Amino acid sequence: MLTAITGINWGDEGKGRMVDLLSQDYDVVVRYQGGNNAGHTVVNDKGKFILNLLPSGILRGEVTNVMGNGMVIDLEHLAGEMGRLRDAGIEVGPQHLKISDKAVICLPYHRQQDCLEEERLGDARYGSTRRGIAPVYGDKYMKKAIRMGELLEPEALKERLRGIVEWKSLTFTGVYHAQPIDFDQVWAWLETYGAPLRPYICDTSRYLDEAAKAGRKILFEAQLGALRDIDFGIYPYTSSSSTIGAYAPVGAGVPNHKLDLSVGVMKAYSTCVGEGPFVCEMFGDEADRLREAGGEYGAATGRPRRVGPFDVPASRYGVRMQGADQIALTKMDVLSYLEKIPVCVAYQVDGVITEEFPTGAKLDRAKAVVEYLPGWHCDISKCRRWEDLPKEAQEYIRYLEKKVQCSIKYVSVGAAREEYLVLED
Ligand code: GDP
Ligand code: MG
Question: Is 221 near ligand 1, meaning CB less than 6 Å away?
Fold first, then answer.
């Protein structure tokens, strides 16, 4: 059984929360893309955790976690994240965590380049998390990146790294008029943070292939949502990797296997971190109230998230791109304060009303068409069965299902593990 848990929207849908819940039925959890620009907040009996790099299954001792070849890994950040979990009494040994030998290392100069480029862009910046993600993926495709497996062959690595640092220094000095990169510093960093990880590095592709063939249940965890996918998202305000479910077997290392199930995590309203078109965006008091109600501040950066009502064109597109078989609808409880619930039902583009999600300059010109649905205006966080939900909440769920053309299987009504309902078919 191979299942992907993906984001239908711009990210921060509550994927970590759903992986934490659903991983109870899985043997292995794999992160298949992205780096520490992600932030998954998980609240369970062990406490509250923010995971940036580690798969969310790490909080269950019996689950094996894999960081796939599609990832980019900042070793220093990973050391900090593992340390914080250990401090909280959670084991993160090589029996709990396997790191792909083909995953790429995000180096300190990638972070630095990310900052230099955002500064250079000024007002036209991408709103990067400045964690080096775009530069390191760029280098991967330039074939100038270092992979985890190279840490196991230090002599060969040293030689290759020399050439790469020389090349990268040309960009730093020539393009940004910055200092050249100090090889010894990079090498020392790799020694400090790379050496302790050696026991974790292996051919995770073989491990997962064998696990899948032995009938073990594998969960693929996405980092950001469909609208941040490098190909299908709001380019260039996307992430630099493929966030979609179809990429999960590739980024995890088992392209010879097919997904059995794709669960799309969809938020009951919209949020977006950083720059880029966000057609349904709300402003002023209305936005402040929703942001406060939902606690919408970035888990990775603490930045206030931009907020808006549920966006039908964007979510319907997200469901299609994710190939979602079913949906986990999250943060329904957050809307309880509203007497009537705004929904962006369509876009108006150049005078034409459409439910299609446009890309490029057309998206910049799109205006939200907003309608209101009746609110339930009471606490639903204790609801555990469909019958417990007020009629208006049931109608909101049915409305969303119809609009995005996919059935909603789970409804999350709180951040804690047990605060959810399963809807029967
Ligand atoms: P991810 O990046 O998709 O894993 O999502 P984040 O963790 O960045 O953001 C989701 C936030 O909402 C986290 O703080 C979760 O603890 C919280 N959360 C998840 N589901 C629910 C829910 O149903 N209700 C409420 N109130 N909070 C939720
Ligand atoms: Mg997040």
Answer: no
Please answer whether residues 59 and 49 qualify as being in contact, where contact means their C-beta atoms are separated by less than 8 angstroms: yes
Residue with CA at minimum distance from ligand 1 atom 9? 12
Give pLDDT, residue 129: 84
> Which atom, in ligand 1's list, is nearest to the CA of 38?
2
* Residue 12 falls in the annotated catalytic set: yes
- The structure's pTM equals 0.94
pLDDT tens string 365-380: 999 999 999 999 999 9
Q: What's the confidence (pLDDT) of residue 301?
A: 73
User: Are the C-beta atoms of 16 and 51 separated by less than 8 Å?
Assistant: yes
Q: Burial level of 315, CB count in 10 A (0-12/13-18/19+)?
A: buried
Q: Is the CB of 39 under 6 A from ligand 1?
A: yes
In the DSSP assignment, the letter for residue 11 is S
**Is 425 noted as a catalytic residue in this protein?**
no
Ligand 2 mean position, distance from CA 183 (Å): 34
In the set 12, 20, 139, 325, the catalytic residue is 12
Buried-state track 351-376, b at ≥16 Cβ within 10 A, e below 16: eeeeeebbeeeebeebebbeeebebb
Residue 421 has pLDDT above 90, yes or no: yes
Tokens of 312: 């039908």
Mean pLDDT of 339-352: 97
Q: Which ligand is nearest to the CA of 40?
A: 1
Q: Tokens for 409, please give them.
A: 């299987």
Q: Are 221 and 32 in contact (CB under 8 A)?
A: yes
CB distance 229 to ligand 1 below 6 Å: no
392 by DSSP, 3-state: which?
Answer: helix
The confidence band for 302, taking pLDDT boundaries of 50, 70 and 90, is: confident
